[in-house]
Design a protein that fits this description.
Alpha/Gamma-adaptin-bd_p34; Alpha and gammaadaptinbinding protein p34like [Amphimedon queenslandica]; alpha/beta; 8 helices; 7-stranded mixed β-sheet; Rossmann fold; 229 residues; 2 domains
């Protein structure tokens, strides 16, 4: 079985560019790459990670199972096996066909088959952003960042959000435990009330428990606990 490496992108080159540095510089932000173009440093509001970039010769198969694969095509190349490209790397989380003017370098049948085969076509000739996402060159990095890379470091904002969420959950649990400990007394008091008063009191207790558990206010909007006495 192919071995798995957590952080690497397999690049298959169908372009006139020959070396890894030239290819990665054409696809990813220069300032995020190592000097030789073999390492991509991701840093966003969620995490930072280092991702290895490897170039696979067209005539060889990969010994590894990559989390992401990128097929780079420019209009200087027209004699590659389009059918085989879409069959390769079925287990990769992200599979990109990145092309300079794909209508010139790829057949219409190949372009139509890309999304149906679980791949994404990135047309580098597109410049404008679409609603809700990027196109062209910015889309390459954006798509690759959706992989569940093994992070070198969780960012401060993410840590703060997690800590805040834990604190909120602890507060809700403390409030719920206090109410639960008072349940016997609440029930005893309810039994001492008349029918209508008992109903209103029960609704107030239910409302308190619901809020202590973090329930949606809309679900209890009609209870008498929210009405004036």
């Amino acid at each position: 079985m192919p071995s798995k490496e957590p952080n690497f992108v397999q690049i298959i080159n169908h372009s006139q560019l020959k070396d890894l540095q030239s290819i990665t510089s054409a696809l990813l932000p220069q300032e995020e790459l190592s000097n030789d173009g073999s390492l991509w440093r991701i840093s966003n509001k969620y995490y930072s990670a280092s991702v290895k970039l490897t170039l696979q010769p067209k005539e060889e198969s990969s010994p590894n199972d990559p989390p992401a694969v990128l097929v780079y095509i420019d209009k200087s190349i027209s004699n590659f096996d389009e059918t085989q490209v879409l069959k390769d790397f079925p287990n990769a989380e992200v599979r990109l066909i990145v092309a300079q003017e794909p209508n010139s370098s790829c057949s219409s049948e190949f372009i139509a088959a890309i999304p149906c085969s679980g791949w994404e076509l990135v047309d580098l000739s597109e410049k404008e952003e679409e609603l809700g996402g990027s196109v062209g060159l910015p889309r390459v990095a954006e798509a690759l960042q959706t992989v569940a890379w093994d992070p070198g470091e969780i960012t401060k904002d993410t840590k703060s959000n997690k800590e805040e969420s834990i604190r909120e959950q602890e507060k809700e649990m403390e409030s719920f435990e206090k109410l639960f400990n008072q349940f016997a007394a609440l029930k005893s008091h309810s039994n001492s009330l008349s029918g209508h008063e008992r109903k209103r009191y029960t609704e107030k207790v239910v409302t308190s428990f619901w809020r202590a558990m973090g329930g949606d206010e809309e679900e209890i909007a009609g209870l008498s606990s929210d009405e004036e006495n």
